Amino acid sequence: MSKEIIYNPEIRTRLLTGINQVARAVAVTYGSVGPTVMIQHRTDGMMPVFTRDGVTVANAVVIQDRIADLGGRMLRDVAGAMSRQVGDGTTTAIVLAQALAQGCLKSVAAGFHPMQLKKGLDVALAVVEKYLLDNAVTSGASDWVEKIALVASKNETKAGKLIAQALSELGLQRELTFLPGNGLEDELAIVDGIQYGQGYLSPYFVTDKTRAEAVLENPYILFYDREISDLMALVPILEQVKAEGRPLLVIAEDVVDKALTGLLLNHVRGIFKVVAVKPPGFGDKRVNRLRDLALLAGGEAILDLPGLSGVLERVGLEQLGQAQRAVITESSTTIIGATGEPAAIAQLSENLRQEAELILAKKPGVGSATGNKHDFDELQERLALLSGKTGTFSVGGNTDFEIKERMVRIENAYLSARAALAEGVLPGGGVALYHCGEVLEKAIAENAGQQQGFHILQQALAAPLLTIIQNANLNTETVIDRLSKPGDNHITVNTENQCYGNFLEIGIIDPVKVMRLALRNAVSVVGTLITSETVVMEVPDLSIMAGYSPEWAAATREDPRV
């Protein structure tokens, strides 16, 4: 396939065009009074999506000019990185990146060397990060966690209270799972023990018909990574478990045919109590989940490796896990009082946490964005399973579209509150970043190019505040004058009520971690932009799309080329 080569200054101009288009679409949602964006559904006839989430809007913008779309892709990567890292600050990062890109490209056109500008940005970033961390408010967390969740969720009062409750009970090490609810109200459920979303393989396993639950007291637990179709393979271990007078929980890839029928008959007749369920996870990740469960329960994952046969028949009691109680419903399995070794569990949790940090440390654009997110989510889910305590937040609403839109906002609010607990808080609404510019006024760089980088970052730090003021239709000079009075950098503005006050009292709060990572990701992507001199792209062969109509395919779910 032939290649197209584009050189500067053309590529920077076209890249900036794409950056401006994406940033303009996203920036309107910024702030507590920012409006929603309507996104056409890809399938004809379906209701459009209404959202105020920056990363959702950014991902929906695809520009026809392929070079301009590369600029838009840079912002999409920045927003995606923020969403993976802290779940909030996507719009802040995009607004900062646009301001930095505009300032840097103007400076390059004026004759400043890109590498010196980049170095100046990096040094200035370190100064600003230190200022944010040194001035963060970390005391009185119980008073402002709910307020942070309220701001990040766009004033969802009940959701803010439930998020504060979840963080209080789960802490920072345990995960909260968000699911579409079945009613109008939001619901929070906290469970002590190991819980995952797989239920019994047959309702005939139920022991409590009133609650539709299968309850096993003091069970042994078998972990097997293959399908079980022959009951005879289970007979040896069943006899050993029955001799102990205890029930058995079978966690296997599946139990089918004669094996399932035999277990059900013996269970119903009271010969022995047994329940069969599937392990958590899907595909090639399921083995890791099975091993995690086995570790938690003090057992061993029985793996039917190639070249081995009859593995299941040779299983002994010492390879089984144990627990005080197991409760299995139609849709979930909960194991309470598992007897795993705490030190081994803690070591695995730490290893998984380090792997997750390596993924978060990747710069925007490094590796596949979806691949990074998938790997990170997988690690977080495993950590949640190992924590021994889990929570489920069921998001309510009137329609599926409302539930989906609210679920994105509420999940982001939860992640934002977690980030606040990690590094503290400062005035929200872009005010803390605006005050960071004062620190850079006193900083002196090595040369004029780096000093210009300082100046560009200083100007960009005001962009979030100015954008919020514009979206609220307030007078910029009046607001800046009120916020610039010396003596108290904790004063901020509530654009919804148009009042000023201490950020903790009026509830306009931003997590330091969100601001810091938004700025870092923005500087990183703009540094890549200004140091790029050439773009090499493939020229698409449009002949293969002859006669193809994406609108027709979306509307009919058919491919007219077939």
Structure description:
- The protein has 562 residues and is of the alpha+beta class.
- The chain has 2 domains: 3-138 and 425-538, GroEL-like equatorial domain (GROEL, domain 1, Orthogonal Bundle), CATH 1.10.560.10; 195-343, GroEL, CATH 3.50.7.
- Helix content is 50%, strand content 16%.
- It contains 20 helices and 20 strands.
- The strands form 7 sheets. Strands 8, 9, 10, 11 and 12 form a 5-stranded mixed beta sheet that branches. Strands 6-14-13-7 form a 4-stranded antiparallel beta sheet, with no helix packed on it. The protein has a 3-stranded mixed beta sheet with strand order 4-15-5.
- The longest helix has 24 residues, at 400-423.
- The model has no long low-confidence stretch (mean pLDDT 85).
Helix content: 40-55%
CATH class placement of the largest domain: Mainly Alpha
CATH superfamily of the largest domain: GroEL-like equatorial domain
Number of strands: 20
- Major sheet: 5 strands, mixed
Rg from Cα: 28 Å
Look at the helices and sheets and give the structural class. Answer: alpha+beta
Features:
562 residues; alpha+beta; GROEL, domain 1; GroEL; 2 domains; five-stranded mixed β-sheet; four-stranded antiparallel β-sheet; 20 helices; 20 strands; 50% helix; 16% strand
How are the secondary structure elements laid out?
Layout (H helix, E strand, L loop, with lengths): L2 E5 L2 H18 L9 E3 L9 E3 L2 H7 L5 H20 L4 H20 L4 H22 L5 H12 L4 H14 L5 E5 L6 E6 L1 E3 L17 E4 L2 E9 L6 H9 L4 E8 L1 H12 L5 E4 L8 H12 L3 E2 L18 E2 L2 E4 L4 E4 L5 H19 L8 H18 L2 E7 L4 H24 L1 E3 L3 H12 L5 H13 L2 H9 L4 H8 L7 E4 L4 E4 H4 L2 E3 H19 L3 E5 L11 H7 L6
Parallel strand pairs: 4-15, 8-9, 8-11, 9-10
Antiparallel strand pairs: 1-20, 2-3, 5-15, 6-14, 7-13, 8-12, 13-14, 16-19, 17-18
